[in-house]
Amino acid sequence: MSGARPPRVFRGTGSLVLLGLTVVVAVLLLVDAAVRSGIANMLLLAPWPLLVVWCVYVVGVASDVRADETGMQVQNLLRRTRIPWPRVKRMQMRWQLEVTLDDGTVVSCFGGPARSRARRLAPGRVKEEGVAETDDGIARLHKLRADAAPGPSDAALARTWDRTTILVGVVLVVWAVVAVVVTR
Fold this sequence. Notes:
Domain Low molecular weight protein antigen 6 PH: 65-108
Number of helices: 6
Protein name: PH domain-containing protein
Number of strands: 8
Transmembrane segments: 12-31, 43-62, 164-182
Oligomer: single chain
Order of helices and strands: EHHHEEEEEEHHEH
Pfam families: bPH_6 (PF10756)
Radius of gyration: 21 Å
Number of domains: 1
Largest sheet: 5 strands, antiparallel
Distance between the termini: 55 Å
Keywords: Membrane, Transmembrane, Transmembrane helix
Strand order of the largest sheet: 1-2-3-4-8
């Protein structure tokens, strides 16, 4: 599969901006703590803003939809579900993307593509043909599904955990517990 294209990643809009703002605020707070009370106290305070950054990452950035020619991977918080295209019966937008499987199971996607809104045009301008279609993440998913090679309809779903993100969360929680024990 060396010639295979990398998967197309669909994230919630604004999630990277929110993560960036959260990181900037956390760094400013930690630098301020280091300047005012020293590195040791900053290390005791550090797990709390870092846990906030971790939560924003898990909810906003890690939760996404990835699609390629074989299927799609939906990550909701820390859980990943790999869905082969033959198992997808329908994809629709409700409050978020919902994928209906051939057995009737519905997989909701916390992060992922969204329908694009109609663009406002300046007075005297006309709508360009085909622009809305190229901006629509749902349409891109449907195109990937339509272009996929047919596969076995009994392909299994694969459910896994995001182990790296879980490990980082556990380290931050242990660090926070140690900070509380040291300060008491």
